[in-house]
Amino acid sequence: MKQSFYQYLMTQRNPNQHDEVTQFANNAFFDHSFPKQESDFEQLSNYLEFNGNYLPSMTVFDTAYNAYLASESKMGGEH
Q1: How many helices and strands, by DSSP H and E, does the chain display?
Q2: 9 φ, ψ to 5°?
Q3: Total domain count for the chain?
Q4: pLDDT number for residue 79
Q5: Is 13 exposed, middle or buried (0-12, 13-18, 19+ CB in 10 A)?
Q6: Nearest to residue 34, comparing CAs of 69, 60, 1, 9?
Q7: 11 is in which domain, residue-wise?
Q8: Is 79 part of a structural domain of the chain?
Q9: What is the pLDDT along the chain (79 residues), one digit of tens a residue?
Q10: How many whole angstroms separate alpha carbon 69 and alpha carbon 79?
């Protein structure tokens, strides 16, 4: 079964690492409104544009989403 973007993002959490994607994951964990079951780029992007004040730039989301797609293709997931 395909994992949601949030499920992927949670694999990137690490309190001892400080790169932008890891910080995004750490902060998204505390965002109780994050669309946890969503995998669609547009839906996630729209949510983060209005609610992702913890993102320094939407480029961080783009980077994380591209890594998510790459991980899904390695696992045989559908896009």
Answers
A1: 4, 0
A2: -60, -35
A3: 1
A4: 45
A5: middle
A6: 9
A7: 5-74
A8: no
A9: 589 999 999 999 998 999 999 999 999 999 999 999 999 999 999 999 999 999 999 999 999 999 999 999 887 654 4
A10: 8
